[in-house]
Specification:
This protein has about 190 residues and is α/β, with parallel strands linked by helices. It contains 7 helices and 5 strands. It has helices at about 15-25, 35-50, 60-70, 80-100, 110-125, 125-140, 150-155; strands at about 10-15, 55-60, 105, 145, 165. Mean pLDDT is about 80; it is low at about 1-5 and about 170-193.
């Protein structure tokens, strides 16, 4: 198990899709971007940044968010220069979360891999979702935030996972992530706080 931070309200796991949704909203990219999902995801991440959530994550989160939130982030309507600026903005956002924030990172080890395999079979999951869930269970997270409604239905339909609540991001008040531009503002270099 990884080192835990003390004195926070909730120990949770934030699925990659939550981070990616905020990146899409910040950079204005993605035809599947949903304003309401963006606002709710932003609030979950703001709670984390404000120290109200103790976040644990598999290193798979970093790989997925980098891969889908930066490396493949583009809009065919934008010029090459605009695409470069969008990727730079996404990179700054990712760095502010994953390098400058107190996430408890967990490597995928044999026990997690075996648990993920069992979950993938039981709930008919892809390997990435199974690794995220197995990590959350192994690290004793009580909450798993995700935008993946299909994942929630599969877990609930399969009887659930003891001691782990799968939740869609919910309204938590008007909060912002420190050090990042608000939606609609110019995305000149975003610096972590």
């Amino acid at each position: 198990m990884s080192r835990r931070r003390g004195g926070v309200a909730q120990r949770c796991y934030i699925d990659s899709c939550v981070y990616i949704e905020v990146i899409k909203g910040r950079t204005g990219v993605g035809i599947d971007h949903d304003e309401q999902d963006y606002d709710l995801c932003l609030q979950v991440l703001a709670q984390f940044e404000n120290g109200n959530l103790d976040v644990t994550a598999s290193t798979m989160v970093y790989v997925e968010v980098f891969g889908k939130g930066e490396a493949k982030l583009h809009d065919k309507r934008k010029s090459q220069l605009a695409v470069g600026k969008t990727q730079a903005a996404a990179s700054a956002i990712i760095d502010s979360w994953f390098k400058a924030s107190p996430i408890s990172w967990v490597e995928v080890h044999q026990d997690i891999a075996e648990d993920a395999r069992e979950m993938a079979r039981k709930f008919n999951l892809d390997s990435q979702d199974a690794v995220h869930l197995a990590t959350a269970v192994d690290e004793e997270c009580g909450i798993f935030y995700t935008l993946d409604r299909r994942l929630i239905r599969r877990i609930e339909g399969g009887g659930g996972i003891p001691n782990l609540q799968l939740l869609l991001p919910v309204a938590m008040g008007q909060l912002t992530i420190p050090g990042q531009a608000l939606r609609g503002e110019k995305l000149s270099p975003l610096e972590p706080s």
